[in-house]
Amino acid sequence: MSRYGTGASQYRHREVMEKIWSWMPLKLMKASASTTTTSIVVCFFFLLLMGAYVATRSLVSSFAITTDTTTASRSEETLIPKVPLTIRKVEFPLNCTVGNHTGTCPRNYPSLYEYQPSSQDHPNPPSCPDYFRWIYEDLRPWKHMGISRDVVERAKRTANFRLVIKDGRAYMERYQKSFQSRDVFTLWGILQLLRKYPGKVPDLELMFDCVDWPVIRSRDYRGPSATTPPPLFRYCGDDATLDIVFPDWSFWGW
């Protein structure tokens, strides 16, 4: 018998060796991939720990700076003396006794306006303020034709109420409820005006619309056969309409 066996034995030996050699690179490749994955995981956790450390140091430094700033501010506050603030309270009382449910207040207010000269620091201006020109601009459509009873009544179509001032007293006729309490605060503002300037507000009658958007379009009142636009007061206006703008005090009452 040969030292190396027969031919069939040699063939099987060669086949086994080829399988071993073909299997070894695959194991080495798997081992290499496993090592690479482990390295990546280790590096990731290392970077994560470093980031947490840096963030913690930043927070500690920021807290220390804030504490120092707050302490310094408190020290400055203790050094600066506080000056008491004097608030001048202006009152316009409505002298209504408790339990008076008649709907009116006693008429014991001054009937004439008493002029009080301004101080030397705030002298009266020699002429009206510049914004007074907008009063003339708002009333310009009625400058030549005037305002008749019929013109006023035509504004009733969209008005919420009619306001009449006679001898320093205000009267109101409501046509439709306004949004929330806009009409109430508008009337309160007019009452305050009568209280502040007794005898200075002339007798008048007007229609008031408590809706924001204007409705008297100027294009509807142009041309030779155009009628006089109705004078309607409201809170807003624009260049394309003729509604007369009035202060909106209801901002403080909603």
Strand order of the largest sheet: 2-1-3-4-5
- Portion of residues in helices? 25-40%
User: What's the total number of strands?
Assistant: 5
Q: Give the averaged pLDDT, no decimals.
A: 75
Note the gap between the termini.
118 Å
* Biggest sheet descriptor: 5 strands, mixed
The H-and-E topology, N to C, reads as: HHHEEHEEE
**Class based on secondary structure composition and strand pairing:** alpha/beta
How many distinct folded domains? 2
β-strand amount? 5-15%
Low-pLDDT parts are 1-6, 26-31
Estimate the global geometry from the Cα principal axes.
elongated
Please report the number of helical segments. 4
Q: Determine Rg (CA atoms, Å).
A: 45 Å
Transmembrane segments: 31-55
Domain Glycosyl transferase CAP10: 126-254
GO molecular function, one term: transferase activity
Organism: Dillenia turbinata
Summarize it.
The chain has 254 residues and is α/β, with parallel strands linked by helices. It has four helices and five strands. Helix content is 39%, strand content 9%.
Pick out its properties.
254 residues; alpha/beta; five-stranded mixed sheet; disordered N terminus
Describe what you observe in this structure.
The chain contains four helices and five strands, in the order H-H-H-E-E-H-E-E-E. With about 250 residues, it is α/β, with parallel strands linked by helices. The protein has two domains: about 20-80; about 130-250, no CATH class. Strands 2-1-3-4-5 form a five-stranded mixed beta sheet, covered by helices on one side. Strand 1 and strand 2 form a beta hairpin. The protein is elongated and about 125 Å long.
